[in-house]
Amino acid sequence: MMRTRPLKVALLGCGVVGSEVARIMTTHADDLAARIGAPVELAGVAVRRTGKVREGIDPALVTTDATALVKRGDIDVVVEVIGGIEPARTLITAAFEHGASVVSANKALLAQDGAALHAAAGEHGRDLYYEAAVAGAIPLIRPLRESLAGDKVNRVLGIVNGTTNFILDKMDSTGAGYQEALDEATALGYAEADPTADVEGFDAAAKAAILAGIAFHTRVRLDDVYREGMTEVTAADFRSAKEMGCTIKLLAICERSKDGTSVTARVHPAMIPLSHPLASVRGAYNAVFVESDAAGQLMFYGPGAGGSPTASAVLGDLVAVCRNRLNGTTGPGESAYADLTVSPMGEVVTRYHISLDVADKPGVLAQVATVFAEHGVSIDTVRQQGKDGEASLVVVTHRASDASLSGTVEALRKLDTVRGVASIMRVEGE
Amino acid sequence: MMRTRPLKVALLGCGVVGSEVARIMTTHADDLAARIGAPVELAGVAVRRTGKVREGIDPALVTTDATALVKRGDIDVVVEVIGGIEPARTLITAAFEHGASVVSANKALLAQDGAALHAAAGEHGRDLYYEAAVAGAIPLIRPLRESLAGDKVNRVLGIVNGTTNFILDKMDSTGAGYQEALDEATALGYAEADPTADVEGFDAAAKAAILAGIAFHTRVRLDDVYREGMTEVTAADFRSAKEMGCTIKLLAICERSKDGTSVTARVHPAMIPLSHPLASVRGAYNAVFVESDAAGQLMFYGPGAGGSPTASAVLGDLVAVCRNRLNGTTGPGESAYADLTVSPMGEVVTRYHISLDVADKPGVLAQVATVFAEHGVSIDTVRQQGKDGEASLVVVTHRASDASLSGTVEALRKLDTVRGVASIMRVEGE
Lengths: 430, 430
Ligand SMILES: NC(=O)c1ccc[n+]([C@@H]2O[C@H](COP(=O)([O-])OP(=O)(O)OC[C@H]3O[C@@H](n4cnc5c(N)ncnc54)[C@H](OP(=O)(O)O)[C@@H]3O)[C@@H](O)[C@H]2O)c1
Ligand SMILES: NC(=O)c1ccc[n+]([C@@H]2O[C@H](COP(=O)([O-])OP(=O)(O)OC[C@H]3O[C@@H](n4cnc5c(N)ncnc54)[C@H](OP(=O)(O)O)[C@@H]3O)[C@@H](O)[C@H]2O)c1
Fold this sequence. Notes:
Chains A, B: It is an enzyme of class 1 (oxidoreductase). The structure is a homodimer. Chain A is built from 14 helices and 18 strands. Chain A is of the alpha/beta class. Bound molecules: NADP nicotinamide-adenine-dinucleotide phosphate (2 copies).
């Protein structure tokens, strides 16, 4: 029993993702109609430049006036794939005000203003879906929000940025340095001309904020996420990692504290054992581990970006939002009832791999060990290598708080016998 | 804004899964209420034996009259975790008739009677959810039905039975034979006293039928699924697999034909390359690959069974069904509009690994090769090993239809120089 009046969709943005959304809406129109229970019609496409040829898109639908499009009043669903904060935020808000539901792929905006956008959606009784904003095609938001709705999630740990994983994978497999691997990623189209958002961890931090909020039913702002990029990771770090049976990944880690009352969210490079499933995530792929009380350990793996994978996620949301609309209902909105404290990085507890350049003379190890002990950081293993009066000391710690570790490092730097702290890397996934 | 009248849940079955469902409903009552928007109340628990002590469950709620419980008329959701065909089927049907929605973990029943149960749910405007029926805690039904609703799934390939994966993993890592590995699985509680449903592939076949139906939007009956157990897999097969850089897994494979008009579903042991992510799925874990047009390759991994993981999936469904109920709506029902043909096993195209015992004399290889050629099965590699007039021939084919391969094997058996066909194993995941 098919309703005949089509649902009208306004597409904001027709770039890498938007053009694929439009293509699939056209080529799979019959399937979409059957799955939704009504046909969906592309009612307008907002872009910045009119001149560009847009294959498969009726030029009559194309406009540069996105505002007028969302305010038309007959739009059922607005798909926002422009990206960035403005004008996306204003357009989405206007969409709700004019009665439309919204599907977005915009992690930056959701991480920064998710709460306000959810409030606007709720106020107008509309849906805001954004599966595509985290890890592209990989279903993550829906599993966290719905499949695990009866469970208690304690940890989300994953590779959520394909560009940096491509670079780190290259460094790992070829021994290349950061710059060389980045150049290759750029040449192959895996890194943008300005790779800052990826390599400095901003993109992953936005995703971590979104994931932590949904996983823990609390609000996690972008500023709450500790962020460290991967531009300082060296070929030497990879050699150290290999000696430990590890590799290095840029991880997004969201954790609930043991007592359950607070959470942390962070993005940084970390060593993980080669035996960990995340260690074998190659190239630009993404993978996310979710650990919960009842389900135990789940992993979700797939392409984390790209026009067509991201469009797959957008269209899944589009179908859901359209169905809700036909049923006169909305899906689960923001769930932030738990209202947990977001603790600062200092309270994060993990293990560390520290390389020190030290003087090669008796008593140095004892001095260094004393500093660790004074700061309550317990040492797991130490490896000492020396030649010609110079030596290096590699210390791997047991679990300790980030604050204790920082204190330790600060004190180490003040020792006469410590020439320098060559690297500090967290060790995860054990 | 919390509604105060609680939603009433009837629990049918309080065994491995049911007792965990009851436990979590009690211990996580506040979280469930917050996520649903109303409290949920355990209104009754139906079991077979009254005598048994059921920890944490109010004895006043326990009944052996499941029929009376589902017919009470005030039940909002029936959770069926009894298992088997009857009385589960009659109880679920009665639940719909008396106005309840249903959450079930019953793969056997869903695979056999899914269509009729969906019809009953639809007729009464109620929900039928069953995430727990396939791969325990791993979100699979919801991602296929909702996240990928805007995509075209072409293939589902996975390990969906933990018992058999445990046994095969043991055989692989220790060189043990089937019986020895089964005995260990039984001793450790991974295999039931009567392991038939698992080792003969019945359990996996039920899951394949459910997955294929949802993935391809068509009806796939249990009888449509080709099924071969893993009781014939030998230590020698594992040695052959290793020589090929492979291991052996019991796989459920659902595929759409190239032209898109038909599908196949099958369960059988197969060799897969060690480099394939499914090869490293250890112990009783499950993992499922989903390949679609736009999303590409996704993988879902986690515990495929166990009381608490399965309860996690049941509770996720319970939350969804309760929300729908509060919203006066239902989730997506059965989607079988595509109405595709299910092709028989003969039309499945894959690669094969065949071990033959042959006479060690000149011309045998030429004879064997001729038989393959006559049946249109192209050979990839042949390895010949001989001593004392006896020899073995290992043939790995290119892709060929199952019918052609069967014809080839039949003809090979008739050759005087072929003493026996030692093993035939499909090769997947390449
Ligand atoms: N690309 C991916 O792999 C990926 C993956 C996950 C999520 N996302 C997210 O998806 C969103 C879109 O990404 P994308 O890669 O498709 O970006 P893109 O290729 O740069 O496309 C952006 C589109 O928005 C249009 N646009 C820009 N400013 C506009 C304005 N003021 N008014 C109307 N239209 C405007 C552009 O118009 P013109 O065509 O005229 O330039 C273009 O069509 C972003 O939020 C991104 O984070 C992308
Ligand atoms: N166990 C798993 O890991 C797992 C994983 C995925 C899916 N599942 C599915 O979940 C379902 C339940 O499995 P399970 O392992 O929990 O089974 P189970 O431990 O054998 O429990 C079955 C429960 O049903 C009750 N029962 C049996 N016949 C009944 C009847 N006629 N009327 C009322 N109650 C009756 C039993 O009562 P008594 O307690 O009095 O014996 C028992 O409480 C099955 O469909 C199974 O396929 C199980």
